[in-house]
Specification:
The structure holds 2 protein chains of 2 kinds. Chain A is mainly α. Chain A is 67% helix and 0% strand. In chain A, helix 2 (33-55) packs across helix 4 (90-109), helix 5 crosses helix 6 and helix 10 crosses helix 11 (237-260). The longest helix of chain A is centred in the last third of the chain and has 24 residues, at 237-260. Chain B has 3 helices and 5 strands, in the order E-H-H-E-E-H-E-E. The longest helix of chain B has 21 residues, at 34-54. In chain B, a hairpin with a 2-residue loop joins strand 2 and strand 3 (71-79). Chain B has helices spanning 16-29, 34-54, 91-99; strands at residues 5-10, 60-68, 71-79, 102-108, 111-119. Chain B is α+β, with helices and mostly antiparallel strands. The radius of gyration of chain B is 14 Å and the shape is globular. Classes of the chains: A mainly alpha, B alpha+beta. Chain A binds chain B through residues 130, 138-144, 146, 154-155, 157-158, 161-162, 165, 194-197, 201, 219-221, 223, 225-228, 237-238, 240-241, 244-245, 248, 251-252, 255-256, and chain B through 20-21, 24-25, 27-28, 31-39, 41-42, 45-46, 49, 53, 87, 89-92, 94-95, 98, 121, 124-125.
Amino acid sequence: MTPSSSGGGQRDVMRQRERELLDELGRLDRGDPRRDAAREELITMHLPLVKHLARRYRDRGEPWDDLVQVGTIGLIKAIDGFDASTGAAFSSYATPTILGEIKRHFRDHAWAVHVPRRLQELQSKVMAEADSLTARLGRAPTVREIAESLGVGEDEVLEAIEARQAYAAAPLEAEDAPTSVVATLGAEDPALAEIDDRETLRILLASLPERERTIVTLRFFRGMSQTQIAEEVGVSQMHVSRLLARSLATLREGLAQGAGA
Amino acid sequence: MNDIVTVTFAADTRNVALARTLTAAMAARADLTLDRLEDARLAVDEAVSEVLASAPPGAEVTAAFTPSEGRLTVVVSAATQAPAPPSETSFGWTVLTALADVADASVIDGRLTIHVEVAQETVGA
């Protein structure tokens, strides 16, 4: 008995199931709910592959959750683009797609990583002032109010806000701090019921880190303001807007892929 | 107050960031609070992305920003290959209407126009 044959039975079962699901995907109509179930099962099944590939890129300054998230988009693309009739193995088809997505993520976002020191300092002053003004006024301040309070120009405040928005310009706080928001938010949300492509959207929402999913839900499906969400979740409003922008980009891209499939 | 700023740029996703930056500056002129300023940015981001999605190759996008006290109006348009404006039940449109006080879209003579307004909420909630 060769070492590789141990556990081979289980692996064969997995492979068999994978084949069934891929066949099903090819056969069923786009609107068929069984198709979404098959897709979801395939995603779950291959998440370890995504994590395995993402691990190669982990020490490069990008949050782990982000790597898994973009890798998952690659996986979804692979699932949608796979042609089962070619007889090729799915994992060898999916691997370059997943890696490609992770590499593209680095290429698209690397530019913003370096923020000049002057701007970093201005940025933290602006953020601190925004927080204290929010506490004092009971609402978010305007750019003018921050500028007046700090004795700098409005253009400088804008520049600081812009830099703050730049991807990965500042380290994110720990992502998984528990929040008081009900756990049912997000993927199973009834507010999704009226939306096109909701099955794809559910999968994409489920692939977001928990806090981002919560923030997206509260802003877009609950109509809470960014300031209210910031209070609820316990982060700054600027951080809320950053996470919103990032999540939206992910969702938009994932949906565009889904629509093109 | 007539403070309109209009820009035209190639229908290329690289230019979305440009529209976003301009939105922040115009929202500041409208004296929006930071959270509404960020909402305006996300809304313009969404509107521009929506317009880009159906623009034919080589198209130009026009974005007109009109700030007034407590309100920013943005009109984004480009030639489109789509016969109709984005579905109101699409995720993009859901996002847009959650962010903006006014959002509407039309396709007239092969041109998609999306009009959004982000206003300062009157309540000090």
